Amino acid sequence: MERGQPPPHRIGVVSTAMYTPEELSEALRSIVSTLHKCEKAIEKLSPGTPQHTLTRRRIEAFRIAIALIEREMEP
């Protein structure tokens, strides 16, 4: 583990208090855009290939990220 990095079991766990609403909004916009690109790309990939599996997993991860960001942005 590199100096200054969180322990492996804490990777990805952050406090949203350190992000402004504008930063969350920009992150959401970027993730939604990338999600749409992945949804288009997966249509051209053959099921069962590593690329298809990776893209499917990314789509699910982006959907989770969107839900979490939207939850944090609620008043």
Q: Taking Cα atoms only, what radius of gyration do you get, to the nearest Å?
A: 15 Å
Reading the helices and strands in chain order gives HH
The beta-strand count equals 0
Arithmetic mean pLDDT: 86
* Discrete helix count: 2
Outline the structure in words.
Helices cover 61% and strands 0% of the residues. It is elongated, with a radius of gyration of 15 Å. With 75 residues, it is mostly helical. The protein is built from two helices and no strands. The chain has helices spanning 21-42, 50-73. Helix 1 runs antiparallel to helix 2 (50-73).
Give the helix/strand layout:
Layout: H1 21-42, H2 50-73
Helix pairs in contact: 1-2
In short, what is this structure?
The protein has 75 residues and is mainly alpha-helical.
